Amino acid sequence: MRAYGLLGILWLVWLLGLLGDSYARNLAVSLSNFVGAYALWRVAVLSPVILRVALSGLATGLVFLGIGDLLFTYNEATGLDTRAIREGIYLVGVTLLLLMGSLLPFRMERQGLYPLGFALRLALLAGLGGVLLSALTTLIRPLSLVELIYAVVAFYLTLLFAQQTPVLAGGRIGRYLQEVVWALVLGSLARVVYVLGGVPPAQWSIVAYDVLWMASMSVLLLGTIRAPRNL
Question: How far apart are CA 102 and CA 126, in angstroms?
Answer without folding.
Answer: 10
